[in-house]
Give the backbone structure.
Amino acid sequence: MNTSSDRWLAYFMILPVVAAVLAFVIGPTWDVATLSLTQVVMGQERGFGTLNNFRALAADPMFALVLKNTAIWILGGTILCVMTGLAVGTFLAIDSKMTTGLRALILLPWVLPDVVTAMAWKWMLHGQVGVIGSTLQSAGLTEQQISFLGDPDLVMWTLVVVLIWRKMPLVALILCAAIRSVPNEQIEASRMDGANAFERFRFVVIPNIAFSLTAVTVISMIWITAEFALPWIMTGGGPANTSQIMSTYIYQQSFEFFSWGVASAMSVVNLVMLMVIVALYLYVNRKSWATGAAS
Amino acid sequence: MGSVTLNNIRKSYGAVEVLHGIDLQVEDGEFTVLVGPSGCGKSTLLRAIAGLETISDGEISLDGQVINHLPPKRRDIAMVFQNYALYPHMTVAKNMGFSLRLAKESKAEIDRKVQAAADILDLAPLLERYPKQLSGGQRQRVAMGRAIVRDPEVFLFDEPLSNLDAKLRVQMRSEIKELHQRLRTTTVYVTHDQIEAMTMADKIVVMRGGHVEQTGSPLELYDRPVNVFVAGFIGSPAMNFIEAVVQGGNVLTSDGAMLGPAPESLSDGARVTAGIRPEDIILADSGAEAKVGLIEPTGAETQLTLRMQGASMVMTTRDRITLSPGDAVHIRVAEGKLRLFDIQSEAAIR
Ligand SMILES: Nc1ncnc2c1ncn2[C@@H]1O[C@H](COP(=O)(O)OP(=O)(O)O)[C@@H](O)[C@H]1O
Ligand SMILES: [Mg+2]
């Protein structure tokens, strides 16, 4: 029997990956977690074992606004991203020459670099020279040219729209593939059973793609939480912090104000929130991914 | 009532026509089997009746009402698919009750009908299971249950047994047949297996290349095939075909052995294809000469492969024989059992 040497070989083979995960994921996470419990003054560490960073965070009048904006960003972004992705994916799943071409084309926003996307949209949405605002104005739809990124009431949702433009294509493609793999016989059986198009979608397609749907939702949520370049380049959190979200605020706190401690505390809050949301979501959807993974 | 009439059904995919004008009458309560080799258009025809496929031309009517343009849900026809097509996320009960749920029937009514169908099919203990927890035969029964609960005018089956192993196939065959005898619902059943067709059908429709070759009861097709194709397709082992010539009112093989009398319509020198069923070949003291090739006993009967000049024939006999491979024998054709076909058109000569 050489099963035990086989096992050691297996451990040895995964060692590089384990080491990399330890070094680049667990390590920094640990660092941030300990840093959040450390008093930092002007970039200097002054004593471990304090909740002062969290107290400061709770007392920060900005933090509530950041939380609200982050909720719009993550929850609004994820829900809209998956919903539009599902709609577009359903459309792309139809067999025709047009959709075959579109399936390739739709990945374009996905392959553009973040910076290019952000700059292009920033320019198109600009308050004076933006092509979108001026088009709306010259078409007579608005009185004056709208400054999408300059209006405190619009800025957050404008960011979400750009976010969806950027993240939705992959979601749509994944869901398109999932929809196309729904067995045709099931669709036909449901037609025989008397289901109309909506009922076929609701009772046959959706349950069949539930696993993919859960997966893309979780993945989108994580992507969107981690997305930094897009909002930072487009608004930098402005105007007057009305588009400040967790990732930009953490960046500002650490690299502009050098409040490492508070920034770390915020990172921890961010991580815990994300984990709770994902765990909750997976729990609510446990049936779909349990059956999906089994089959 | 559930009589189906097909009138000149044509179906093309792009420029390719796969059904070339099918006429068919299925009587109320009849068990009709569409049989033919793979790709001959059986599924296409069945799906056209179901409404899953549009037709390019012709008329489908149910009880005299033209239903061509009705969607599947309004045709009152249920279908059982080859791969069962159960909904994996629904329990057996939900699968069976789905059509009723869509039809907005009451919960109590759905439960009652599902229970009744489950009792008929011995599915009652499985109602709360999911399809993946069932064996192939049980899934097949659930697929049938889903059709039964709707109490439709017509059942359609598309090769429902081809995914089952041989033993289960025989068992399900008789279950489906019994179910039909019990419910008396008009049934159209597609298979490429002629044994399934012979054992189950009230009426067999033999198809080839998008045409109907012959329609009739199993024994009609067996005894009076209209052409070489039907004669060769129906029956197992298949009918033997050899070239023959008419001489002096008799049909002779190419080396002059006598096969049987020729009908009066054939004149001397006419060339024909002679068809002889394996069980109609008899070992005799005189007659055509042959050498024994393979001997395959199956218990009840024995199958012999006989080598003749330029031809090879299969015969079956219920007698216990004492021959061995290589032995020379004489054979003749049982009286009145010789079938003749036109050598060009392959049509039967009566
Ligand atoms: N969707 C389709 N597009 C093009 N040709 C098809 C399509 N479906 C079936 N066919 C063709 O129609 C013919 C009949 O097919 P089918 O009815 O499935 O045969 P069977 O069920 O008798 O095996 C075949 O030659 C097949 O290639
Ligand atoms: Mg078929």
